[in-house]
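WARN retry 2 of 3 for item q-0093 after timeout on previous attempt; input resubmitted unchanged.
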Amino acid sequence: MPLSTAAALDQHLREATVNPYRQVPRAVFLAATSDDPALYRGHAGWARLPAQEVGAEELAKQGTPIEEDSRFELFSCTKLCGSIAALQLVEQGKVDLHGEARQYVPEIADLKVLKGFGDDGEPVFEQQDRSVTVQQLLTHTSGSVRFSLRPSCSSSSAHACSRASQSLQVHLQHLARAGTAAREAPRARRGSLRQGRDSGASLPAPPPL
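OK item q-0093 returned
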């Protein structure tokens, strides 16, 4: 079926979400152009589903239908949308790419840095020594990590993070040396990828993570 009309798109979304436990649980679809910021707006499915699979009748009672402005988990799918939106704002002069992110999200200023774990196994935090920038958020270099802090966290978690951090630092140092070597090499030896590969020059491999 060609999706050339709003009615066809609406029907497609309804069919895709008819069985939220086996197909797509929810969908919010927006289409826009530079001339028409609301070319199409449609949604279908459920913002919240019962924990256990239920039939259509019970789903209508217990489920929460999706709305255009509903909030739901998209996980890493938000990275592309968020990055494009942020860069558009940078182009429009509304956001400073190198500015402090707390200008736009004040709560970021209240975030603490994980220093480690105390003898009691509880996490120890300290104040930020420099502000996170918009560019760091976009390039995943702000220092934020996917790490769940629970009361059951032990100091072994901190040791694991420390080992990972040290290993990453070694790799970064290796990359820095590689970049320096490339800049200092004679121009003739780095004229192309093939010339560099055939020159016989090599760098020691970084240690495994």
